[in-house]
Amino acid sequence: MKPAESLHASEREIDAAYPPFTLNDAFSAAEIASDPFSSGLGRVVEAFAVLEERVSAAIANLLGVSPGLGALVTANMSFGDKLRLMASLVRHVAPSRQFNAGCFAQLDVLDAIVRTCTTCEELRDGAIRSAWRHTESVPSAEPRFTAAQLAGIGDYIVWAGECVVDYLREMDDGE
After folding, report:
1. Cα separation of 2 and 13, whole Å?
2. What percent of the residues of the chain are helix, what percent strand, and what percent coil, each to the nearest 5?
3. Residues 59, 85 contacting (CB under 8 angstroms)
4. What is the CA radius of gyration of the chain?
5. Can you list the positions of beta strands (E) in the chain?
6. What is the C-alpha to C-alpha distance for residues 134 and 121, in angstroms, rounded to an integer?
7. Could you tell me which residues are beta bridge partners of residue 135?
8. CA-based, 20 to 30 A from 75: which of 7, 52, 54, 150?
């Protein structure tokens, strides 16, 4: 039997077996364009990242802190935690501030926005975690969502982010 030291691979051997990603490994634009399912999935992921950033920015705004400090506050929070914090902060300042709720009660609109954002998270999770249908633990070749449905989910998430921004916009103007 060999001594324990000889069982260890060199760093070079490990790096060769598990190379880091490089941009040279990326797909070509033609390969990406020819895969609308993956493009749609990317749209969902990108749109959700923007939505999450908008909720984080709303928290910083409601706290009255810089975007950088707001990012520190929200960095390790789940999306659900961020959403609950944003809603709590809106409820806290609502008696003294006007939000862009149109002809509806401002807290009713807040509740609708929170529900919408929660739905966005569920749609995103469904898209990225269950890209393929499973029947009795056997994956089928049938996607759970079509490319068009994924694009629609992405558009819905973009719209939800705009709702967050629009709702808080009037608050900024009315301060």
Report:
1. 18
2. 70, 5, 25
3. yes
4. 22
5. 132-135, 138-143
6. 21
7. 138
8. 150
Domain ranges of the chain: 35-173
Q: How far apart are CA 119 and CA 122, in angstroms?
A: 5
**How many CB atoms are closer than 10 A to CB 131?**
15
CB 80 within 8 A of CB 118: yes
pLDDT in tens, 14-48: 777 777 767 666 666 666 566 777 788 889 999 99
pLDDT single digits (tens) 78-90: 999 999 999 999 9
| Residue 73 to residue 120: CA distance in whole angstroms | 22
| CA separation for the pair 112, 119 (Å, rounded) | 10
Buried-exposed string 18-31: b where 16+ CB fall within 10 A, e elsewhere: eeeeeeeeeeeeee
